[in-house]
Design a protein that fits this description.
Elements lengths: L50 H19 L9 H7 L6 H8 L8 H21 L8 H12 L3 H4 L2 H16 L11 H15 L11 H13 L11
Helix pairs in contact: 1-3, 3-4, 4-5, 5-7, 7-8, 8-9
Length: about 230
């Protein structure tokens, strides 16, 4: 089976290798959780359905989970504890608001926990589609559906485009025959970057250095007016 972990450099990269395993987030710090924003008379609330609104709601729910359990999230918080805090019930928009640290409301621990929750859901999809039965074609196709169901905010991120292109290429390499392109030029260019890696006999470490990858990144930055620049040295 062609492994997504051998292709993707994004949030979704490790899930096939860890399919079926109960994950515990391994955050980078033990920062105290950011305090929930207080309501101020006359303050303008974020529009319902917006990423800012999802972030504010997530902050409130996480703090309520901490209060309920009498704890806060740290590097020692287990996957089951994050579930009890409420992460397993968050929708995709909420998880993206946390993982992208919308409004600067979330700690490193919470950001990593949100990313692991997304990975856990992908792992469930993989296990439900018997990834070893057909070189992974059904599993990759199902993951593409999962990625395509993301919110517009998540789809606008470069990380989503990298993940979508990587799983799309894995689907093609596994023998998939459906047309699964998005028509998005950034995603198309990132798929081309995988073609360049393969043509050079490279691996996933070479991916960000491919000309097509850097061209895709330039296009994405232009679309976003240079905001949220991606650090290629990370």
């Amino acid at each position: 089976m062609t492994s997504v972990s051998g292709l993707s450099t994004g949030s979704y990269s490790h899930v096939l290798a860890n399919a079926g395993q109960k994950q515990s987030p391994s955050p980078k710090s033990e920062n105290a959780p950011a305090p929930a924003e207080k309501s101020t008379p006359g303050a303008t609330k974020a529009p319902a359905g917006s990423l800012a609104s999802a972030a504010a709601t997530a902050r409130e729910k996480i703090d309520a989970g901490y209060a309920r359990l009498g704890t806060t999230g740290t590097t020692r918080t287990t996957g089951d504890e994050w579930d009890a805090i409420g992460f397993k019930d968050f929708d995709r928009q909420t998880l993206f608001a946390i993982s992208s640290n919308e409004g600067g409301l979330f700690t490193d621990d919470e950001i990593v926990a949100a990313k692991y929750q997304v990975s856990a859901r992908i792992s469930d999809i993989i296990n439900a589609n018997d990834p070893l039965s057909d070189n992974g074609t059904k599993a990759y196709r199902a993951i593409l559906d999962f990625l395509d169901a993301a919110s517009d905010d998540e789809k606008a991120s470069f990380e989503w485009a990298v993940g979508r292109a990587s799983v799309q290429k894995a689907y093609m390499l596994s023998g998939g025959t459906e047309e699964v392109g998005t028509g998005d030029r950034v995603v198309d260019k990132l798929v081309e970057a995988w073609d360049q890696v393969i043509a050079r006999g490279g691996n996933s470490n070479d991916y960000p250095n491919m000309p097509a990858y850097r061209e895709a990144l330039t296009w994405w930055e232009q679309t976003n007016d240079g905001a949220h620049r991606v650090d290629l040295s990370a």
